Amino acid sequence: MLWWSFFTAATGWAWSFVSLTATRSLFGMGEAGCFPNLTKTFTTWLPEKERVRAQGIMWLPSYLRQGRHMEIASTALLSVLPLLFGGLGNPAGVVVGGWLLRGTGDVAKTRRIMAYLGFAGASGFPAFSTVVHNPLLAMLPVGMASFSNDLVMPGAWAAVMDIGGKYAGSLAGASYAGGILTR
Fold first, then answer.
1. Is residue 144 part of a domain?
2. Per-residue pLDDT for 50 more than 70?
3. What is the pLDDT, as a whole number, of residue 103?
């Protein structure tokens, strides 16, 4: 992870095609260990019939089958909801953020409001899924948590571009590396 994170940041430091190619090649060498390690982890910890699905949302189908006592066919449909909602949250963040910006006239304030809304939803909605007995209705709050989290993404990455300027790639990589190191 450290290698991968470092060369993600180093991509922004490239000054020519050759340096970019070398940096991305070194990044690839670091990334190459990811999939063998995931394969080993999935082999060790997951039942054989769950391993393919693990590349998507790892825990959700098992949770729906074991925790919600659903048939596997039903879990596939419900497992898509968080990804679908997350995919809708990102463009919604652009629209709502634009609307808020017109109202506030302040980019930083708009980004803070979006972060408050998004992260509050991302941390609050999952609690609702624990008290709902119907599996479909229980998955809606999980989907809304994903939606809420992705509301924040457009403003967060725009902030990285605004702050980083021509070094936005390096800043994004360093931010990613910092996130990895703090786990």
1. yes
2. no
3. 96
